[in-house]
Please model this.
Amino acid sequence: MTTRTMLPRLGALAATVALMSACSGGMGEDPAVEESQNPPAAEQSEASDGGGEAMDPAANLVGPGCANYAELVPDGAGSVEGMAQDPVSVAASNNPMLTTLTSAVSGELNPDVNLADTLDGDEFTVFAPVDEAFAAVPAADLEALAADSDALTTVLTYHVVPGQMSPDEIAGTHMTVQGEEIEVTGEGDALMVGDSAVICGGVQTQNATVYLIDTVLMPPSMTEQG
Model:
């Protein structure tokens, strides 16, 4: 189972305000004290206003399917903008392209496998197979996987990498939460996660960067077992 402008400094303004305060406030006030009290306000202004561009959920999207995704879900909780407002498990549950994955990580597919709190509890990069990816798995294999809580947990956690990685830094080999490595190759609209193509990547949630992919990934240890 995937993304930040400089504002003018307010230090000069703070110093001017401090000086005016000292001149009008009487002999007992120290301009240095007044000036020292103003930078936090400037920093607070920068914190609240300086992240405008970085907070644009669509700023770092890559993938040939992003336009189709935007057309399918132009607004609302499941859209790119909507997903950015929620923790990753909630964001995924609102996306109509991720209904099977949501059922798998929420305990609906197997009550012994509920990873929602884990996924929402830290920062992750999540490779999220879309519904068509699960539909391509033979029904008997999917039913067997759903019935085996250990195997299902292994597969799901193989789609998750600790830490958030944007599209321009995702290429490379990464250790998954499951404990085996996964390789991401290519760049831009040609990113591949193993043998799976990225449909739309760099989708932001409150705590994760999501890459919608077209194939359910299998850990090497499970493919070796047949």
